[in-house]
Amino acid sequence: MIRIELQIDLNYTIGPQGADFVFNIHAAHTAHQRISAENLRLSQAIESQIHTDPLTGNRYLRLRAEPGPLSLSYAATVDIVHHRSAPAQIAEVPVRSLPPEVMGYVYPSRYCQSDRLLKLANDEFGGLWQGYNRVLAIRDWVQRHVTFASNTSNSNTSAVDTLIERVGICRDFAHLMIALCRALNIPARFTTGTDYGADPALGPPDFHAYVEVYLGDRWYIFDPSGTAIPMGLLRFGTGRDAADVAFATIFGGVQSGPPVIRAQAVEDASRGLLRPQHCADALSSDAGGRLQLA
Question: Considering the domain 85-243, what is its CATH architecture?
Fold first, then answer.
């Protein structure tokens, strides 16, 4: 089991009219990701509401902030028990056999224009064995053809933009991999967490985007940017692309400070708590079969 101690601190200055926020920074409840403790603190004496999406398990915090400074602090202890499989044994699922809740992740979306990448995807990957290893080939292709560099894209950058520019950050890698998978009728979704295990040379710890692909009977984890350790990826939200799971959506005049994030693994072999590490197994924190929530 992986245990992550998570701390997120966010700071804002709110304009004179106040502002509304929707945050997606709470660890998701899933059958394989359990929250044993969590705490939310707000610097303003304001009401807040948390809504859990019944289909995805995403948890959204909504609040109305008053003018002036606003600080938000979220802490959680999260336990993750991964399903592990041998990659060679995992097959793709024909569209006709996909569960209804998975079908939405086959279609193009705002940032993942899979319909514009059909020829590329089939030329590069159409002849490969249809299974987990074909998805690995897509991940590796994205890593080879796109360079990771901070401040090289913006909120309008799409998968096609990244394919042209060949540079981006984690969300751009994720969008391109998702679009290529969907172009081959492989369901893929955008997933958010923190960049556990990232090289400090890339900057301070940050939010992170990665990919989950539906194969066999569950969603498997892939990190196309190659910057994090997949076993240490703690899930906040899943969606069609970044538009569905922004860590903060702001309505109003607001100045934002940089996030301060700490995600630390607890290692204690006597209690079965392991440090995340790279491995050759296929990893999933999904229950398998039809989507089940804790």
Answer: Roll (3.10)
Local structure of 248: helix, strand or coil: strand
Do residues 136 and 180 lie in contact, with contact meaning Cβ atoms separated by under 8 Å? no
User: Does residue 293 contact residue 30 with C-beta atoms inside 8 Å?
Assistant: yes
| Assessment of whether the complete model's pTM goes beyond 0.85 | yes
For every residue of 19-45, DSSP letters joined together read: EEEEE--SPPPBTTEEEEEEEEEESS-
Burial readout 193-220 (b: 16 or more C-beta within 10 A, e: otherwise) = bbbbbbeeebeebbbbbbbbbbbbbbbb
Residue 45 has pLDDT above 90, yes or no: yes
Helices (H), 91-216: 118-125, 132-145, 159-165, 170-183
Establish how many alpha carbons lie within 13 A of residue 141's alpha carbon, considering only the half-sphere containing its beta carbon.
18
Which secondary-structure segment (H or E) carries 253? strand 248-256
> How far, CA to CA in Å, does 186 sit from each of 94, 136, 138?
8, 12, 11
Residues 77-107 have pLDDT tens digits of 999 999 999 999 999 999 999 999 999 999 9
Domain positions in the chain are 85-243
Six-digit token pair at 36?
């044993």
φ and ψ at 108, to 5 degrees?
-60, 155
